[in-house]
Amino acid sequence: MTRPITAGADGTEESLAALDWAGREAVRRGLPLRVVHAWRYAESLATADRNTQHGWVSQGVAEAVRAVSERHPRLEVSVDVVEGEPVHALARAAAEAEMLVLGSPGHGPVLGFLLGSIGQQVIAEATRPVVLVRAGDRPTAEAAGRDVVVGQHGDGEDSAATLLFAFETAAARGATVRAVRAWTLPPVFAYSPGSLKLLDDVGGLEPYEKQALSDALEPWRERFPDVPVAEHVEMGSAGQVLLSVAGRAQLMVVGRRSHRTAVGGRIGSVTHGVLHHADCPVAVVPHE
């Protein structure tokens, strides 16, 4: 089954930027584009019944899709206008997609994405990657030699889904993967004789972290031999280190644990920080 790249569209400037980004990515990957608009019937519009309102919505979406189809005449595009609660409708669409692409209004008074409640909830609920594209995004950065930056943590298995997405994206774009691993000094009580010996064997904490990153990347280097890779290991919090290299990124890729809590899904502090402060599209990849 071929999964499409799906874009959420509502006619706003940010959703048009997301739709444009999704169209370009679909062309690169040779995938179809699916455009989804979730709407609710407005009973307050007494002069317009459900069918009339559906027609208005469909017409607006069609106009946005027409522009993408004109830019990419060979791209297979489908449109679904679904009535229902937006978060659940978009999360369902994401489950059937290679990725879901959503728009963000841009930046607030403090530099960062204005991530609305719908976008945040969809990211927390989605079982597939979700890409946030800010209003005003332009394709120039994708051709400016910038990297696909990806955060790596733990061992190779912990970040496998995130690294796979980053390497696939870089391969489709002819870009470099810049893999970033942050580390901090552990509390003294976390040391054990065995762990101290392990650190001594590799020469200290920083060489240990560099080796861990190299080991995590090894299978992906073998699978994608044509993708250049740059390794970045730095002491600091994961969010701060990732944002320190955001200026050279055409896309940032971060992971999110897909387990749920009693109050629903969560996106995590690192992902939350990157989403609010990165000045480029951000992909959030769920993993176990």
UniProtKB/TrEMBL annotation:
Domain UspA, first and last residues per copy: 1-134, 155-286
Entries under Pfam families matching the protein: Usp
Alphabetical list of InterPro entries matching this protein: Rossmann-like_a/b/a_fold, Universal_stress_UspA, UspA
Domain of life: Bacteria
Name of the protein in its database record: Universal stress protein
Family: Belongs to the universal stress protein A family.
Organism the protein comes from: Streptomyces fodineus
